[in-house]
Amino acid sequence: METRPEGSGAWEADESAEPHEEPSEHASGREGFAQHLALAEGRDQPDGPGTSEPESTLDERVEAFRQQALDRESTLREEMKQVVVAAGGIPGHEQERPKEDQDTRTAQEKLEDWHRVHLVGLEHSVKDTDSLHPKFSRYEAAGMSGADVTARIKDAIRYTIQLPDDKYSAGAWKAIEALTAQGHEPLEVRNSWDDEVYRGVNTSWRDHASGLNFEVQFHTPFGFRVKQATHPIYKVQRELDPTKEQEMKEIAELQKRQAVFTHFVTAPPGAETIVSQKEREQRDAQVQDQQEGTS
User: Fold this and answer.
1) CA torsion angle for 213, 188, 141, 29 (degrees, to 10)?
2) Residue 126 pLDDT > 60, yes or no?
3) Which helix H or strand E contains 204, and what residues bound it?
4) Residues 39 and 276: beta-carbon distance below 8 Å
């Protein structure tokens, strides 16, 4: 089995591609990060030309970025509720669920959750500092700074929409259309339903209001539970260095363990059709070429 690089697992966005060019209307997002950073350092305004303020620490930069994500998430969540309704959810049913070991729902409530479209995992909608810190450290070590780092991180804010199998494909497409209609810029659609380690669809977007990137995952009820169950395995894998031969072997072994569980997650009808606009156009062109070739 092919070993997957960091960023291709269930809980990380693929950040290996070059950052998308930032339109001018998203300059406010960069300014917002600078303002948060200034506050974190006890300054009234961001550093400008000719200032002699001391450079911020890595911890301060991470905390400033996370605070900006927290500030935006509180209102972005309301937009996500509208997206869920567009995908077939019931208004007012999107709420933060307790952790599994504190789940107080009745059996009937759990059954109802299984058969409806709703947001899950809202308690993890903003990455914690411990998760963001390694990303900042790694990217800055590669020579990136400021907006380059924040543009590379696609999942500081993330949501998961759970859809029953029979509503999965249609619901996911309606959600994508609703996100686009709200003005969010689609960055990537990653369909992993044929993968051995992780199955689902991960999409990444640039927020229309802040310029921050955020992630929306689409899972079936069973697929989401398998993802949660294998998360401890992934956390161990995430700490390993794939450039080191011994750790590469450990990563491969951990992925085999994940695959044992993922094997039982079956793709819902039509899941393979959820791809980016570019891929859709390429597929349509191929179908048209085939039809013309047989006519």
Assistant:
1) -20
2) yes
3) strand 201-206
4) no
